[in-house]
Give the backbone structure.
Amino acid sequence: MSFRVVNSACALLIVLVYPPTLSATVSEVLHRAEQAEKLVSYRGVKYATVRCCEEDEIRFKMSVIHLKPDKTRVTYLAPSTLAGMVTVRNGSRRWQYYPQQERWVSCHRCLGPNDFRVSTQVLHNYKVRITGTERVAGREAYVVNAVPKLGSEPTHRIWIDKQRYIVVGTETKTGDGRVIRSSRFLSLALDPRDIKLSLFQVRGDTGSVSKNGGRIGFRVLKPSYLPAGYKLVGASTSSVNGHACSHLQFSNGVNTVSLFQRQAGKTSQEYVFLSKVTNVLSWVKNGMHFTLLGDLARSELQKIADSVR
Amino acid sequence: MNCKKARRTLSDYVDNVLPRSIAADFENHIKECPGCAAELDSVRSTIASLRSLAVRNTPVDLWPRVRRAVQSVQVGNIARPFYFRPAFIAPAITVTTAAVAMLLLPSPRQDSRKPDRLSSQEYHQYISYHAHSQQNPFVDSDVVLAAVELDKAKIRTDGNRR
């Protein structure tokens, strides 16, 4: 009897002194989730919602086909405004198909260092916890919460498949608890064998958006100020409206800020509009035109802009 | 006849339009009143002076000149000082407006920043690049892209409406 008591007391002491930390598990789950798309092919139907400012919630429906390691085709089914639009990702290349114009447009994306791990940066800047499990698309999934350690940026929740670590749901909330974006698979089939490679090949005219061949013709300026936890994670060059343009991408692991730079033209067809997707700041300085955009407060964007030199 | 009545009838007497009886009474008063007699002499001398002035004829082109002057006033082309003429006023207003605008605009450092001013086409490319470049487990880039496309459609609609 006394042996049992001592044993229990020791176990309790061990638990108190060394609490079972979830961080190792979270780290592992996040890292696996980051790599999952390279290892698993899948096909499914995904629902999503977006709420911009005080407007009504907009619901999306899309069909997703993923072929490991890096090919994805998304066909938008609803709302009617976007029905028929297709995005194709094949390695580092991106295309978008616009049904009204019946044409593909190629898009670039920033490329970062090969050894960059998003999960490491997320764990550094966010309090990440596994809060339980839920069933999504008929499969058991971890529920992972991420709350920023600093600042008032949105909080995030994702659902990660327990067996194959595919991200099967996402949710972004503002500080006051309002859901501004969410997505969740309604149906999901893993390892289908009938996915054709031709789904990820784009032929014909791919529009005017193209790479600039790396020749930029001006000195790319960087901001000396970045919010805590942010760092440069990608860079690229492209052509925008006939101008050579640089694109720098900064991230804290979850949130992303983009800085575009090009030479300022003499003629401008500028007019005022407000984006509802993200904050945008645009200015001209020393003959260069800059555009900064991202899900940051305007005051923070302003600080970054002021430090670009 | 007293002096008061004599002064009232003086002008008619000079013009020789008084009845004979009143004219006789006036002459009797003048003989007895040196003040009224002096007044009569003053009026007669003034009339004599006026009659001595030369008579001038009206110029033959007076009426055409009057008509031209009236027409020029109607079209607003009357002679004005140079600083009231449009050729002087228009540049002056332009220069003044520009000077006031420059004074009212922020300093050059702030002037270089133009928040929210960007062509929609360029913005569409930037926001697409931004959305495509987001890749982490917490952000569903397919949803971000969808939101971007809806935003583009809305901006296009608003632009067409304007």
